[in-house]
Amino acid sequence: MTSHQLSAPLSERIEIIVDKLKQTHPNATYELDWENPLQLLIGTILAAQCTDERVNRVTKSLFPKYPTAAAYAAAELSELEQDLKPTGFYRKKAQTVQNVCQVLLERFDGEVPQTMAQLVELPGVARKTANVVLNCAFSIPSGVIVDTHVARVSQRMGLSGQKNPDKIEQDLMKLVPQSEWVFFGPAMVLHGRYTCTASNPQCSQCVLIDVCEQKL
Ligand code: SF4
After folding, report:
1. 153 alpha carbon to ligand 1 midpoint, in Å?
2. Angle, alpha carbons 183-188-190 (nearest 5°)
3. What's the CA gap between 208 and 36, in Å, rounded?
């Protein structure tokens, strides 16, 4: 670690952080399996309190069974619950999926809308899920994805002193150029998942160690 880099203004540190993340995660993207915006939206809803690996196992058969918003909306709730059971909180998730798909049918012809304002109006959809869909499915820099990994890494690195995900996102949106938002969120997710882990972060192997304010 050089004291020079740590004492540099945040704007300079952010440039270094983005560059280093591009070297380590050049093709950073969300680790859910999906082939269209609806699948990414459903997968992201299911990923709450569940690993991406488990979601991917479930969606492998779920997506062919329910290929459209209309299919989810028309499903027997009890059957959908059983289909989602391995992802946990399956009753709530089944209800959310069905409610979301009902609104997609009623207001958007069954398609996933492409604006933040429309997405966060869907029942149970907050900014993180909306950003995942907009950033990854449509390459729209609507904001920065802030999940549990991005929140933790941002706090440790001194990029945000906030705890609320929306406030952390506001801090990151001020720091990171908008042209990098689509890359930055998924890259920070990967950095948090594999290096800056919740317990035992791999600081000695971390490419961001020179620009990390709160090195553990
Ligand atoms: S140096 Fe440690 S605390 Fe800082 S970002 Fe890297 S792994 Fe996380």
Report:
1. 7
2. 100
3. 33
Where is 109: in which H helix or E strand? none
CA triplet 161, 164, 168: central angle to 5 degrees?
55
Amino acid at 155: Q
Ligand 1 lined by 156 (C-beta under 6 Å): yes
Domain with CATH 1.10.340.30 in the chain: 37-138
Q: Considering the domain 37-138 in this protein, what is its CATH number?
A: 1.10.340.30
CATH topology of domain 3-30+145-211: Endonuclease Iii, domain 2 (1.10.1670)
pLDDT per residue of the chain (216 residues) written in tens, 0 to 9: 455 566 678 888 999 999 999 999 999 988 999 999 999 999 999 999 999 999 999 999 999 999 999 999 999 999 999 999 999 999 999 999 999 999 999 999 999 999 999 999 999 999 999 999 999 999 999 999 999 999 999 999 999 999 999 999 999 999 999 999 999 999 999 999 999 999 999 999 999 999 998 765
The verdict on the CB of residue 209 being under 6 Å from ligand 1 is yes
Residues of the chain with CATH 1.10.1670.10: 3-30+145-211
Cα Rg of the chain, angstroms: 18
Q: Which of 147, 163, 166, 171 is catalytic?
A: 147
In the chain, the amino acid numbered 55 is V
Rounded distance, CA 110 to CA 31, Å? 25
- pTM for the full model? 0.93
